[in-house]
Amino acid sequence: xxxxxxQPGLAxxxxxxxxxxxxxxxxxxxxxxxxxHALTANSLVTLSLDPxxxxxxxxxxxxxxxxxxxxxxxxISVLSTSQSHYARHFADVRRTGAVPLLVPLTADxxxxxxxxxxxxxxxxxxxxxxxxxxxxxxxxxxxxxxxxGDPLAFVDGEFRGGAG
Length: 164
Ligand SMILES: Cc1cc2nc3c(=O)[nH]c(=O)nc-3n(C[C@H](O)[C@H](O)[C@H](O)COP(=O)(O)OP(=O)(O)OC[C@H]3O[C@@H](n4cnc5c(N)ncnc54)[C@H](O)[C@@H]3O)c2cc1C
Prior knowledge:
The protein has 164 residues and is mostly beta strands. 10% of the residues lie in helices and 41% in strands. The chain has one domain (29-156): Pnp Oxidase, Chain A. The chain has 2 helices and 12 strands, in the order H-E-E-E-E-E-E-H-E-E-E-E-E-E. Strand 11 and strand 12 form a beta hairpin. The chain is globular. The termini are far apart. The mean pLDDT is 95.
C-alpha cells in the first residue's frame, strides 16, 4: 500500500494555520501528595454533555501526564483577561518566579485559579494516544462560572483581550 501524499512542510503549515484559530486559555491543575502541578492548555474541548466529558491534549513527555490516572481528580480553570500571568507561568518548563495562587473549592478538591471565568472539577476517565499527544478525557464532577471578567483569548501566538 502506498503512503498518502503529504503536502511538503505540512507540520509548519499546520502550526501556522492553527495559530489563526482563536481559543480560550485554561490552567489544568492536580495535587500529588503535598505538591501541586499545573500546566497551561488551550486544547480544552467539550466532548459530551451526557455524560459530561471534557478533553485535553497533553504531551506524554511532560511532568503532568503521569499524574493523570485512575482515581485522580483535576481542576480546569478558564482564565480571564487579567490572568495571563497564570498562563505564562504554567507554560514555562522552568516555572520560574513567584507561583500564582491556586486554591481548591473544597478541602479535598483539586486546585483552581481564584477569580477564573469558569471552572471544571474532573475525574480522570480515559486516555487516548493521538499522534504525538495523549487525549486525557475527564468526567466532569462539577463546574461553574465566575462573575467577573472576560475570557482570555489566544491567537497568532499571543494573548488577547487584556494587558497581553
Ligand atoms: C496558550 C498556551 C496553550 C498551551 N496548550 C497546551 C496544551 O493544550 N497541551 C499541552 O500539552 N501543552 C500546552 N501548552 C504548553 C504547556 O503549557 C507547557 O509545555 C507546560 O510546561 C507543560 O507542562 P507539563 O507538566 O506537561 O510538561 P513539563 O514537564 O513542564 O515539560 C514541558 C515540555 O518540555 C519538555 N522538557 C521537560 N524538561 C525538559 C528539559 N529539562 N529539557 C528540555 N525539555 C524538557 C517536556 O518533554 C515537555 O515536552 C500551551 C502553552 C500555551 C502558552
